[in-house]
Design brief:
Mean pLDDT: 85
Number of strands: 17
Strand content: 5-15%
Radius of gyration: 35 Å
Largest sheet: 5 strands, mixed
Length: 579
């Protein structure tokens, strides 16, 4: 028996409601007036069989808060006077109301549903504004004119979080929804994958514009990097520094490339539509392409070591539009710098990295006098960097900025020995315990989305990368306080230990030598370059084979008829080499 009317047979149960219920068809519809995405089943005499609220007679009234049009207060329905709570308040004969119904596919977190929708036809309503009525129901229409498909705000938020945290592709997400709808026969579920791709891009862009204060002003342009977050701890004049700051602040950057983030050539690039070109972390496409056309490709090989990043410059894959990306981040906290991520075309060339570094150095850095730039091949890149900037019409540096090049500690081991004192972070004042390799840790999650973004359109790929970089910076932002507190406590303890060891060492050294060394260190810090060679390790090299043979040859010749020791050793080494 129906638990609500206590008259009809209670053959309907809901699998989404809590508890055990039994309704008749009309009562089930009434109980789910505001729960259109619950899954119901009907008893057929032998077992419960899946059905839908639409099959039970559920009608979604769009524009009336989920309910049908009702008479205005003080008036009777028989007189034909009605009040629309969404349109203008008016009186209208019932006979003149235009009935407008259609079926709509609605995608929700619980699955894909089909509902019969009754559109508002009250005076003041406009059929052209049907999409606005859908949005008021917290549904995002897949089209503006006569929408037939819509996505709930909840499912769009779920998709964005799934993509950020679980690196879920749109196809995998929709396949999950299909299985939620009909796990036995998912092929019978309506396919709205293309609509999800389109609507999710619009939803992402609208959310970001609202979060950054551009949601209600369509005329105001966010500008380059206007929809991006940056590091809350790095000094930014006018943002996180007092107006009268006089102390000497510097910025620390690290740049690195990711050759996993490739991008295939598009069949119809002219059909691509960008929603936020240059507004996030990747640079604006047209100015960047103009810079590449004006730049001269550097054909010089590295004079330091056989670095893969530079020697891969001549590699060209015909099916790829981009062989990877290069990004600049703050070296201490690992936050991507807005509007500084570039695409590579033929490996990692200076024309690409120069554009990224110049954009990063110019971002919120007014009156900053010193910048530490850490780059895997900083020893070669820094040699002609300023001359390349001076000869380019698209590269700019803040006036009076001193750039200190350095190499990350992991990559420095692959450089020549002479690079160690000149580009080691150990000899840069203020660098602390930086390792210069923090971007390597940031690339790890990006490598999970690179296969998905590889075949996207250029605009879509840019939006996806911007979204993940924005999310990475957001996590750094909300966790910056406990992170800095932990590092502060650790550094204080390490400082006490190092001061104690320093004092113990000074106690057993000659004071005159210590004074001379301190003067040399101050001079090397000021002059840098070759002056830092005082820290170069000096040691005797091991003798070569020929030097060892010559030394042994100076031994007195034995009077024994047997072969001498030199010949014996030389023959043994030759036998070993031949094997």
């Amino acid at each position: 028996i129906c638990e609500q009317c206590c008259q009809a047979e209670g053959s309907i149960r809901c699998m989404s409601c809590t508890g055990v219920h039994a309704w008749c068809g009309p009562c089930a519809v009434k109980a789910h007036r505001n729960l259109p995405f619950h899954k119901v089943q009907r008893w057929n005499g032998t077992h419960y069989q899946a059905t839908s609220l639409m099959d039970l007679g559920f009608l979604w009234h769009v524009g009336h808060g989920g309910g049908a049009m009702s008479p205005s207060p003080g008036e009777s329905q028989s007189r034909g006077v009605w009040l629309c709570i969404w349109g203008r308040t008016s009186k209208l004969q019932v006979s003149s109301l235009r009935s407008s119904r259609s079926q709509m596919t609605i995608v929700h977190t619980e699955g894909i549903f089909t509902h019969e929708v009754s559109w508002c036809s009250c005076p003041g309503s406009d059929p052209i504004d049907l999409h606005l009525s859908v949005l008021r129901e917290r549904l995002f229409p897949a089209s503006i004119s006569k929408p037939k498909t819509a996505f709930t705000f909840e499912v769009l938020n779920h998709f964005l979080i799934d993509a950020l945290e679980c690196k879920t592709s749109a196809m995998s997400f929709y396949q999950k929804l299909k299985r939620f709808t009909n796990n036995a026969f998912p092929d019978r579920v309506p396919v709205e994958y293309r609509e999800l791709m389109r609507v999710s891009r619009l939803w992402r862009d609208l959310k970001h514009r609202k979060w950054f204060g551009f949601g209600h002003d369509t005329e105001l342009d966010p500008g380059e990097g206007g929809l991006a977050l940056f590091c809350p701890a790095c000094p930014q004049p006018g943002i996180n520094l007092p107006p009268d700051w006089k102390a000497r602040y510097d910025r620390q950057y690290v740049i690195d490339g990711n050759f996993t983030a490739q991008h295939m050539k598009m069949n119809k690039p002219e059909m691509d539509v960008s929603l936020s070109d240059g507004k996030g972390y990747m640079v604006s496409e047209i100015p960047y392409q103009s810079h590449l056309q004006q730049s001269v490709d550097n054909k010089e090989r590295s004079t330091c070591s056989n670095h893969r990043a530079i020697n891969a410059a001549n590699i060209n894959k015909s099916n790829l539009r981009s062989t990877g990306i290069g990004a600049t981040a703050c070296a201490r906290h690992g936050c991507f710098v807005p509007h500084s991520v570039v695409d590579f075309q033929k490996g990692e060339r200076y024309m690409n990295t120069d554009y990224s570094i110049c954009n990063a150095l110019s971002y919120h850095s007014e009156n900053i006098t010193t910048a530490l730039v850490i780059y895997d091949v900083g020893c070669q890149w820094s040699v002609n960097f300023r001359s390349r900037v001076k000869s380019s019409s698209s590269l700019f540096l803040p006036s009076g900025l001193e750039i200190i090049p350095a190499v990350g500690k992991f990559h420095l081991a692959a450089h020549k020995l002479s690079c160690f004192p000149r580009y080691s972070l150990n000899f840069v004042k203020g660098a602390g315990h930086l390792d210069g390799e923090i971007l390597e840790t940031l690339w790890a999650p990006f490598n999970k989305i690179s296969p998905t973004a590889r075949s996207m359109t250029q605009a879509h790929r840019q939006e996806v990368y911007d979204d993940h970089m924005r999310d990475s910076n957001w996590k750094k932002l909300v966790g910056i306080v406990p992170s800095l507190l932990k590092k502060y406590k650790t550094s204080n303890k390490c400082l006490e230990d190092m001061n104690q060891a320093y004092e113990q060492l000074n106690a057993v050294l000659d004071p005159n030598k210590v004074a001379r060394w301190e003067l040399d260190a101050v001079k090397a810090e000021a002059d840098r370059g070759e002056a830092l060679d005082i820290y170069l390790l000096r040691g005797d090299k091991a003798p070569t084979f020929h030097e060892a043979q010559l030394k042994l040859g100076k031994n007195p010749v034995s009077s024994s008829p047997n072969l001498g020791s030199v010949a014996w050793l030389a023959e043994g080494i030759s036998i070993e080499d031949s094997q």
